[in-house]
Amino acid sequence: MTDLARASAEGAASPAASKRGIGMISAQQIGISFSPDQPAVLEGLDLHVGEGDFISILGPSGCGKSTLLKLIAGLLDPTAGKLEVGGQTDDSQAEIGFVFQDPTLLPWRNVIDNIRLPLELRGYPVKAQLEAAGEIQEMVGLQPEDGLKYPRMLSGGMRMRVSLARALVTRPDILLLDEPFAALDDMLRQQLNEELLAIWEKQGQTIVFVTHNVSEAVFLSQQVCLMQSTPGRLVDQVQIPFPFPRQAALRGEAEFARLVADVGRRLREGVV
User: Fold this and answer.
1) Sign of the alpha-carbon torsion through 256, 47, 206, 192
2) Which of 80, 92, 168, 266 is most exposed by smallest CB count within 10 Å?
3) What share of the chain is helix, strand, coil (3-state, %, to 5)?
4) Per the structure, how many domains does the chain have?
5) Contact between residue 201 and residue 181 where contact means Cβ atoms under 8 Å apart
């Protein structure tokens, strides 16, 4: 097994493990505007995410949740404030994986070739690419025979598993997920929630998860961050007290239902 494959398979010792600080995210009064004639998309947003934390972001459509992820990923630059990723404002050394709502798989490449694409683009030896991709494929719940299938042959849940595997194959320090399970039915969404938690508990990367689903956010996260729009900003942060590992039965507990209702009320009211 190559070092790359071994690192991808083994992960960190625990979800909260902090060895390098490279997975930390700090936003101080950040803002972004795409036009002087239009309201800012984000303004005065403060956020701190510790190494190995799992947070979810909830907010109305258009409040800038996806824009915030793109800022963290370095795909956009803030026009105000200070954003540090891995302790750096520029040229962060943090490895970042990004999963979008649309799996965006390349239709002419099979599953294993889609998964190994980031390693291919970085020039890793083909053998290392295939070993790492095969191990990550198994980790996300795909069978060995699925590796030769093409995207058109996959269900929605399988396509999302491939997208997640592709984001994980580089062993990212930070994993950003933008409503990845929104198009799936409730049963499959819940199953993938549990699988995502198992991956996080094994690998220990920092995760920022955007969703519109309050129950999903409460089940997954250590902390739920609430945003309001026009302009987008963080208005509340709710600590989730349930210990890990979390099991499916948690969703049936009265305290879980109470917390989901409370977070939903805060979100509707847009109140701290």
Assistant:
1) positive
2) 80
3) 40, 20, 40
4) 1
5) no
Neighbours of 42 (CB within 10 A): 27
* Residues 157, 125 contacting (CB under 8 angstroms): no
CATH number, position 199: 3.40.50.300
13-52 tens-digit pLDDT: 333 344 467 889 999 999 999 888 888 899 999 999 999 9
Please report how the helices 3-10 and 126-139 are oriented relative to each other, as an axis angle in degrees rounded to 10: 10
Buried b (16+ CB within 10 A) or exposed e, 184-202: beeeebbbbbeebbebbbb
CA distance 92 to 97: 13
Residue carrying the six token digits 């997975």: 23
120 found inside a domain: no
Residue 205: inside a domain: yes
The residue segments making up the domain with residue 260 are 3-106+174-269
- The answer to whether residue 139 sits within a structural domain is no
> 243 — phi, psi (to 5°)?
-75, 165
- Tell me how far CA of residue 203 lies from CA of 29, 77, 135, 197, in angstroms: 31, 28, 13, 10
Task: Give the percent of the chain with pLDDT over 90.
Answer: 77
pTM: 0.89
